């Protein structure tokens, strides 16, 4: 079973397929996972297998740890390309998320002004005004939309609370282009009895997803596939050919799109 549980509040730097040299900011507990999704492809495992005993890091703890790490990297002459909110769950679920974003921008401007501030989010907290406004202040507001098929989302992303695709799409439209859409493409063609096959690379999924993307009109779309071990071992990567085909359809719609294999 996949068990990548990240330190908190700072981890890395790591090399990101999409973002470059990334210094991670994990606003979830250091010993477990807290997320509003329970994705069957999550590298951090299933929520119920890694229930934390520690609290989330506070705003003050996060800013202090980030400043120390940036000072260390500055002294080494190895500054990050990006400061990325990710880790053991949904970063926007932290009650002090907006204030932490402001602290991070301040520290970025002081120590590594060329670096971008990125947030990897599953779009479940966009109804909160403080979260929405904070995301408008970051450089890379990266929001997940794996499909617009409700049944697929229930089976693959497995939201832990209220989730309606129509509401998520409408909230993403409210960014007026100041958003990047991130989509995971994957498949499971051979399954045990009672476990449905899945494949969101087919036109049945891609075409309605693309229509939603066109409505959202993001500045960029990032499509990708499985790269690390998943807690559901029956999953398989989308092929390069399949990702390239989807990428080309997004590009043909006039939207910048990258594919990570």
Strand-helix topology:
Layout: E1 10-16, E2 20-26, H1 59-76, E3 82-86, H2 97-111, E4 116-121, H3 129-135, E5 140-144, H4 150-156, H5 165-173, E6 180-184, E7 186-188, E8 198-199, H6 203-216, E9 220-224, E10 236-237, H7 240-252, E11 257-260
Parallel strand pairs: 2-3, 3-4, 4-5, 5-6, 6-9, 9-11
Antiparallel strand pairs: 1-2, 7-8, 7-10
Concise summary:
The chain is an alpha/beta fold and 261 residues long. It is built from seven helices and eleven strands.
Helix content: 25-40%
As laid out across the biggest beta sheet, the strand order is 1-2-3-4-5-6-9-11
Radius of gyration: 18 Å
Largest sheet: 8 strands, mixed
Instruction: Write the H/E string, N to C.
Output: EEHEHEHEHHEEEHEEHE
Which class of secondary structure composition applies to the elements? alpha/beta
How many helical elements?
Answer: 7
Overall mean pLDDT stands at 95
Shape: globular
Termini Cα gap: 22 Å
* DSSP strand tally: 11
Q: Which segments are poorly predicted (pLDDT under 50) over 5 or more consecutive residues? A: none
The share of residues in extended strands comes to 15-25%
Describe the structure.
The protein has helices at 59-76, 97-111, 129-135, 150-156, 165-173, 203-216, 240-252, and strands at 10-16, 20-26, 82-86, 116-121, 140-144, 180-184, 186-188, 198-199, 220-224, 236-237, 257-260. The protein is 32% helix and 20% strand. It starts with 9 loop residues before the first strand and ends with a strand. It has seven helices and eleven strands. β4 (116-121), α3 (129-135) and β5 form a beta-alpha-beta unit.
